[in-house]
Amino acid sequence: MLAAIAVLSTSWLWAHPAGASRQLALQHIQAPLFSVGLVRCTFVDRTRNVLNYSTTPPTVLSNARTLVTEIRYPTSYVAGGPSQISGATPAARTGGYPMIVFAHGYDVTPDIYAAMLDAWVRAGFVVVAPLFPDENQYAVAAQLGANTEDDIRNEPADIAFVTRSLLQASATPSTGCRVVSGLIQPSELALAGHSDGATAVGLLTYARGNDPQGVSFASLRAGLNYRAVAILSGEEDRAQRYAPPASDPALLVIQSAADQCNPIRNSVKLYDDIHQSNKWFLELLTAHHLPPFDGADATAFPVVAATSTRFFRVALQGVNPRVSLVVYGNEHPSVAAMFASGASPTLSNATLPVICGRT
Fold first, then answer.
1. Phi-psi region for residue 195, left (φ > 0), alpha (ψ -120 to 50) or beta?
2. If you average pLDDT over residues 22-33, what whole number do you get?
3. Contact 208/243 with Cβ under 8 angstroms?
4. 73-102 residue pLDDT tens
5. What architecture (CATH level 2) is domain 10-340?
6. How far is CA 52 from CA 63, 67, 110, 151, 197, in A?
């Protein structure tokens, strides 16, 4: 069902003939490959604590980090069927599917991104998304609305732990998450995150320092073959030095110039600090912080969903692009502009005041 494997290279950076872009409208409306199955599995890391930020100073809330994880996976396509099918039987595939590990933002849960995550699943990916013990909306409410964002530096270890737990569950049918048995291709892994989740993904992939437990980010990612990384409105931890890892995963940054929660200058700095050729920056021109990624922005969301899906299909599934990713991202010039390699957006809105909220 999937296209033959092709080499990911910088040949898809540059524009193909002008007529090629007209093929994109047809590609956007093709029937999905799969429907979406959905389950939750719980993984417990007993080596690290959860803090209670409602006290001053923060105290230990739990001696283990319980990571309830939403797992979306391909199931047989049903035309006109429900958008998600709880507990559905996975669609079998020899060798398993590529897996994207997604990190949510502050004071939300992965459900809010369902439209985007489901778009990836329908294209042939397993998408797993843990609820972070201090930053999900239930944890924030339980701590009386305290600012729990300092826990972001513990989340790279959560992401790595969940990745390894899912790989083990796929390889070992006797584990407590049977739905993923044989479902994941361990050599085809990707990371994605939005807002604080994107910052956590950036730390795990590119940071050269240590987390709050004194464990280096390099050791957290060791042995995990992340081949693609999507940073959706994220930024660097300024206390860290950033550089591409030896595995050289493909990088896609998506950021709006009008985002007043995470100003574009933050994403541009991260992008510029990763010195590699296989990187792309999709600049949304008028969108805000969350609506391009949760589906509320009816103009920007289709561009985000289509471009990110295309990125993952080429980087992980080996799909040979008929149209370069640059042309793909530039198909709607009033909505978005795509930059590649050494090019990045100009910071015309660099002085926007920072105003955050659920939207």
1. left
2. 48
3. yes
4. 999 998 888 889 999 999 999 999 999 999
5. 3-Layer(aba) Sandwich (3.40)
6. 11, 16, 22, 10, 19
